[in-house]
Amino acid sequence: MVKIGNIELGEFPLLLAPMEDVSDPPFRALCKENGADLMYTEFISSEGLIRDAAKSVQKLDIFEYERPIGIQIFGSDIESMKKATEVTAQANPDIIDINYGCPVKKVACKGAGAGILQDIPKMVEMTEAIVKSTNLPVTVKTRLGWNDDTKYIVEVAERLQDVGIKAISIHGRTRKQMYKGAADWTLIGEVKNNPRMHIPVFGNGDIDTPEKALAMKNTYGVDGVMIGRASIGYPWIFNEIKHFLNTGEHLAPPTIQDRINAAQRHLEMSVKWKGETLGVLEMRRHYANYFRDIPHFKDHRMKLVTENKAEAVFETLDEIRTVFV
Fold this sequence. Notes:
By secondary structure, this protein is α/β, with parallel strands linked by helices.
């Protein structure tokens, strides 16, 4: 049984990665229904939380059906991160996660996210300060290092464990790689198989089929896998992996009807939670995956990603049902 603090997650948990503008409550609801064992919110700016910025505060919204749920925060200032931890704890998550992995320029080049990989002592100091400022279990999401010359993750993981984190998720790329090239899981395996490590180690990067999840489990011995991009517009991946791990067989893929129903529910929840303008806009990244590999679909997809009114998108989804089902 894999545990984070006292939270039991099953034998080989599947985690939904925190993804900006993706892993919001509507999307998390679909992932939970489809087998995600632990989910994280989008990352939230510590400075935004301290200043009570509306966008940051809204990301603290979590719901009972999502549990166990972790709220992820990021920042470069230790005092701000401590204060943000206290604000976050009031939202009553099960876990507080620290983002030490985001590679985007506006985050990393200010010393937050993956930027802190250039200052490991500060990373350790910040982590310890956050652990001490909450009774909730603290976890970390990070990368192998800043670049190929600084892949210190085996030592870093040990040091973070020593200051009290309860689990670590490691993306198998450096910050310099961004999302290019193949994820390298060998160092993730080294972290897991380090005899000094006793907290759960989750691997992340390129898990987009049940076979890959099984291979990473068997090859590197990780305690579970975290799934990011492969879940966008495809929440079924969690149950597909679970079924394959348990039986060695593939679940039947979602039908067109299943895909339309999921897209409609997702859009409904998105509009309800964010309002029409943002709800419609932020759904667009999901449609290519909801309807991937469907022949002669291009015109319908163009409609889905260019309509600005929810009613028009719902009409297009109904039209797709008429044509393809």
